[in-house]
């Protein structure tokens, strides 16, 4: 049996808005499974090696539940364009390049290492429509020690014919080939990924819904990101009163479904999410960059909708989920200035970026015993001290200062995957 | 005569929303004064040494026209509190520490070096009320090669008596002592700095107004940041129809005046700014962190108000003005979602952070001949390429990615003050 013991100032998020703090505590894992956080080392571990990180913070790692891997090279470009123009001018031509496995290998290796260095150990990710590049992405993530789900994108209409679009038959065939080829990755699993309703024919959606049911596969897509998109979906599916029903009618609406954005989801759509256990993935930077809007995150949380965070690279311009956490606070403050609602506090946003994301993978909140060891060590001792800071003040400062160089080490599924 | 020739991909902002780009151009200065940007090296410089930065970008450096130096250690803490509670719980106790010259020396040395490394070479800065610490700040900025204005803060009421407040007499005496002692800094000059109207008695304001007139000193303060503050000013100065008049009636409202925030300035207040040549300093991150609001920057620009940018450390949580430029775009997008107004483009926000800030120091926009050499070299070749990027796309990406490590070298007033 292997024992991992990390000593430092331990902070975790056991519930929305709460922080558990243990100064100079011991986070203990056996065979990569957390046993607990202890103020003093339990006797049964006497003699086991302790990694002592001094006054560094030991935190949960972060979960990025929505990003587009092939758009990684685009981060921070074309942000002055509206969504649909941006897709045509930037996203589609870039994604088309992943027909080339060498380009895919180069970018996906950088991305995977960058994720580990940022302390993101759990992902749910869109690839492009290319099967081989998707397999390369899964391989590189696996090598870098990242865990989670990757989806070959399905898109057989309204995209970029001749550049980035499949026929329905190609999409079916390649999806089956991909699922066949990706069975052996231990930490990276497939997730069905219709790009969004406008880019998938009814025939393709029917196929994906069946596949989800037959093979017990999860699904991810976009929902109610902006009003033009919602109008488009209404025209394409006149039988559906709301956008979400266009996923539900094909069987892609359940407790394993991730829906990014949900900026304009009204009470009825939110109730549908809550009742079916769908997870809403809030992508604050992207929503602001693309002028999509400010979703009612606090209302959703109060109503019992599951909410996690995503970087939405490259609608979002930063890979680090520290930015997404700070961005979630800011997005809620921007919304407050419109409707006076409470804003998200830092502990609340931190919970969304850590425990709420991990919940999609079946984990309990915080460093709960039984969870896989996903943790980061973060050093803040190079920053000047205004006064002796509490652990929660230090966490807040790390979220806002979000200095990637401050991350000293990262564990994912029990393995140390990064050390500065 | 000393000649500086920088070769690289040169980008400058000659007018709002415009970029001048010269691939593999030569930026030439004689004795620290810019002669021009040339696509080929003019014959008269043949034989002069050329610093060849390859494919790196050569950009104007940035100007930060509003920040609180003593709050530097507070960056990113207490952001969940409203402004007045934050001042009492965080800002005032931290500022009080600058009674200790050793603490001042330690923090201001870090801050000054950090500014240089971020490519900020021009500042207008609040110190605390402490004369000695203010002189230490000026000395450390001077040593680090930063240029601009620093103000000993005046505050003789409604602050933190016993902790951080002067008597009117102390404030007068110390201001005179400070002005006496700071005459010999070549690049760092004094600026009168009443903290804001609520913290200065009429007697103190009268004194400061006279001083400004007698000695030709500029002034900086806060204006119309939030509504509670505006109500307070109205109660304190019932003779003034608007906040700005409480500065104007003491003679602190002219073309050398900087006013931070102006979030709620209406048409009449904006007209007063334009007519008197007052510069509005937009601090987007701070305005969002403190839920102050989104100022009408585009309206101000259209009306002819001078607008520059500030980090507002520590209401703002980042020192780099790349963040303030990206923040200005985002703030305008947030405002767009309220009133549908156009957002600021990246070239527009870049102009505000560079040329518009330099204008306060009497410089012409862009790398105009006659300007002092203030420039940064920024390398972006470690980022993956989605496609061959234009110089303006590369600038945009650098603004959004805002990686401090990308800055390779910085010139300020003709001197190289930083090299990575």
UniProtKB/TrEMBL annotation, chains A, B:
Pfam family, one: Amidohydro_1
GO cellular component: cytosol
Residue ranges annotated for the Amidohydrolase-related domain, each copy included: 62-415
Keyword DNA damage recorded: no
Keywords annotated in UniProt: Hydrolase, Metal-binding, Zinc
GO molecular function, one term: guanine deaminase activity
GO biological-process terms attached to the record: guanine metabolic process
Claim: Lipid metabolism is one of the keywords in the record: no
Record InterPro entries: Amidohydro-rel, Metal-dep_hydrolase_composite, Metal_Hydrolase, Metallo-dep_hydrolases
Cofactor(s) named in the record: Zn(2+)
Ranges that cross the membrane: none
PANTHER family: GUANINE DEAMINASE (PTHR11271)
Protein name as it appears in the record: Guanine deaminase
Native organism: Pusillibacter faecalis
């Amino acid at each position: 049996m292997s024992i991992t013991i990390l000593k430092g100032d331990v902070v975790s998020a056991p519930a929305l808005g709460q922080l558990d703090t243990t100064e100079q505590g011991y986070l203990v894992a056996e065979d990569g499974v957390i046993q607990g956080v202890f103020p003093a080392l339990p006797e049964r571990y006497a003699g086991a090696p302790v990694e002592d990180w001094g006054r560094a913070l030991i935190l949960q790692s972060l979960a990025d539940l929505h990003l587009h891997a092939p758009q990684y090279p685009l981060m921070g470009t074309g942000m002055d364009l509206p969504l649909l123009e941006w897709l045509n001018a930037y996203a589609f031509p870039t994604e088309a390049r992943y027909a080339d496995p060498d380009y895919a290998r180069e970018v996906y290796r950088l991305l995977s290492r960058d994720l580990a260095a940022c302390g993101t150990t759990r992902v749910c990710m869109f690839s492009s429509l290319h099967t081989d590049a998707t397999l390369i992405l899964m391989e590189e993530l696996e090598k870098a020690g990242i865990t989670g789900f990757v989806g070959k994108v399905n898109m057989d209409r309204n995209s970029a014919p001749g550049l980035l679009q499949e026929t329905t038959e190609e999409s079916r065939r390649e999806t089956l080939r991909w699922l066949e080829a990706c069975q052996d990755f231990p930490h990276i699993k497939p997730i069905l990924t219709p790009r969004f309703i406008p880019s998938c024919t009814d025939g393709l959606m029917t196929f994906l819904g069946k596949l989800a049911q037959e093979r017990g596969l999860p699904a991810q897509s976009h929902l109610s990101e902006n009003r033009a998109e919602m109008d488009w979906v209404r025209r394409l599916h006149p039988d559906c009163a709301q956008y979400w029903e266009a996923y539900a009618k094909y069987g892609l609406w359940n407790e394993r479904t991730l829906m990014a954005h949900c900026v304009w989801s009204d009470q009825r759509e939110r109730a549908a999410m809550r009742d079916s256990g769908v997870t809403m993935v809030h992508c604050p930077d992207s929503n602001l960059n693309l002028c999509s809007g400010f979703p009612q995150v606090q209302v959703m949380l109060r109503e019992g909708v599951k909410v996690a965070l995503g970087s939405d690279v490259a609608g979002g311009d930063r890979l680090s989920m520290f930015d997404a956490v700070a961005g979630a606070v800011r997005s809620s403050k921007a919304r407050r200035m419109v409707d006076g609602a409470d804003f998200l506090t830092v502990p609340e946003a931190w919970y969304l970026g850590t425990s709420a994301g991990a919940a999609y993978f079946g984990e309990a909140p915080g460093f709960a015993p039984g969870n896989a060891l996903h943790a980061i060590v973060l050093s803040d001792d190079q920053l000047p001290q205004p006064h002796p800071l509490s652990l929660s003040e230090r966490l807040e400062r790390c979220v806002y200062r979000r200095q990637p160089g401050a991350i000293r080490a990262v564990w994912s599924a029990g393995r140390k995957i990064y050390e500065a």
